Amino acid sequence: MPSPAFDEMTLQDGSIRQAYGELADWIAAAPPDLLDYRVREAELLFRRIGITFAVYGDQQAQERLIPFDIIPRILTAAEWKLLSEGLEQRVKALNLYIADVYGKREILKAGIVPHELVFQNAAFRPEMAGKSPPHDLWVHIAGIDIVRVDADTFYVLEDNARTPSGVSYMLENREVMIRLFPELFSRHRVAPVEKYPDELLATLRSLAPRSAPSDPAVVLLTPGVYNSAYYEHSFLADKLGIELVEGRDLFVRDEVVYMRTTEGPKRVDVIYRRVDDEWLDPLVFRPDSALGVPGLMSAYHAGNVTLTNAIGTGVADDKAIYSYMPDIIRFYLGAEPLLKNVPTYRCREPEALAYVLDHIEELVVKEVHGSGGYGMLVGPHATKEQVELFRAKLRASPGGFIAQPTLALSTCPTYVDSGVSPRHVDLRPFVLTGSDGVRIVPGGLTRVAMKEGSLVVNSSQGGGTKDTWVLDG
Amino acid sequence: MLSRTADNLFWLSRYVERAEALARILEATQRLASLPAAYGGKTNEWESAVQTAGVAEAFFDKHEEANHETVVAYLAFDRDNPSSILNCFETARHNARSVRTALTMEMWDAINGAWIELRRTADRKLEGEELTRFLSWVKEISLRFDGSASRTMLRNDIYDFSRLGMLLERADNTARILDVKYHLLLPEEGGVGGGLDYYQWSAILRAVSAMTSYHWVYRESLKPWLIADLLILNDQMPRSLAACYGELVRHLDALARSYGRQGQAQRMARASRVRLENADIREIFQTGLHEFITGFLSDNNRLGLAIHEQYLA
């Protein structure tokens, strides 16, 4: 087992880290009734606003709340500076890499990334080869998952370059916290996250095709009410003041996209799509897709509409490519990565595979294309049967897996049934890239594994969320 | 606005209005059916409730007999009946969820709260007192939704579409009550007005909550042609056909103004409104009450289609 985890509030010797000083005093002084009462109030607020999350495969609870923890997670200005510079660097590299993979392929010629990881990748879109989206930007909205292991070390755990979700929880968590704990905010200078919708809208508008009018029409494309993130789609559309459309609301004529309105067809310039590539256009991708818009790709290739994120960005964010990110950063930016990668064993490489099979009980094994905490083995917490199952899977298709040491993810004080107790957390900040620059709102979504000792923070696996505070100055 | 959004808003308020109408029909029926058999008359009140709700055919596919138990189960809680109160709220909430951003917080609360509450109670058998409480709860939800809409919504096209759905449904319900009960209002049957007729007539008024209004307007004991006058032609009576069409025209005109063009829907609504304005209850009786109502129902239906064609498709 790994050594005891780093707690972001309380050090091993029992002393309180400076950023948490006020909060620790407040927790110690708060009567237990008060916390209980606020927890119930928070649940009521969330229930009423209707923030729910559908869990696939869980018929009973078609809509349920993600547990919200009332104790905030605090980052200092210095920590945030390190993180945001590292995030900006990482997303710049992601954009250059994707442009290269669909363009001149220099990184392949240089032998840094193996060909098959690109061309045999299910997320590689041959349709995009030789094409360039408006402004040659690909990943406009990225969610980069970060974990922490000690006072100074942050790792990137995963890049999400397709349609990352969770930002609505960042915004709603803050809203609820301000309502429930105004006294805490008066004791801290917390950097605001409320401007995220404005920043997102500015980013989306900056990405409009050059031929679009100066006031481009931006819409958010959702798969519909049955999608697990539907709440977030409607929330964002509302905050941005843009239409929330489904595939059937759009149509393409003469390579131009229109939406059906009560006043007739209206031209669309930018589509913030929360629909995966393969469902977007039944004429090009899956012919059985009812979620997409026939002809959308023809409008896209004609340069008449911007899709955010661009088509084919998945080629940069799977777990096999992840292990090459430090080299990718060096290759394009000529600089050392500011944020570290977790050491990763590529099971496609025979030596690595042998090591993983021998040490599987200490490792976390992940499917290269898995997400949401599905298809993953946490060695130290797994049963014998699970371990054997994964050994068999690994032998059958080693290329489908990577493995990483089981990190001692940092913990934060969390309010659970037994009182305030440390629980493991991660962090997903959101990085916006427009034609006019990169924007990162200070904070992000902190996910917390509510079960004692658990390292799985995914909401689909019972994880909760916390408000994330970045202290100003 | 997206056509789909307008469509969802339109049907959202239509379903809330329908749920309320069903609650009123059940209330009035429960009252009539609880009278001593001597007043119960020749008709089966539960059967006429099913007819008024417009679901007689599907009902008798499933049940042999229309009685308290089967009709309450079918109209209030049956999942197979697309227009049961339960399904009305279910559909309304589904629509509300798709257009969350177009609704005010208060409207969403009313619908979402009702849906959560209903999921708790839906599978219980309700009788007597409990049923009465349930039915008034349904009416309260509709009042809350309607009140929230009128107190919190911007007066824009979103508002117009949600009102159109409500008004079209309301006119439809009033006309269907008249359609099922018209024979009670014909002069040869109701000349003197025995106890039986009195209860039947008052049941019609209660089904549209117009009992008190009737006395305020006519200051007379119940007369069948006055009841018909109140429900068809009286502009002051909010559930009358005339009042519904006055409002329908107003909202369709508002849409035409803000979009800068009008169409079939405006012309049809205006024509119906003018017919109602110029009509006289005696003439309606002379040319046939039943024909008049049947004609109205099909015009109302056509207006719904015209609105769909023009804006919602």
From TrEMBL, chain B:
Pfam family, one: Alpha-E
Domain named DUF403: residues: 1-312
Highest taxon listed in the record's lineage: Bacteria
The protein's name: Alpha-E domain-containing protein
Native source organism of the sequence: Hansschlegelia zhihuaiae
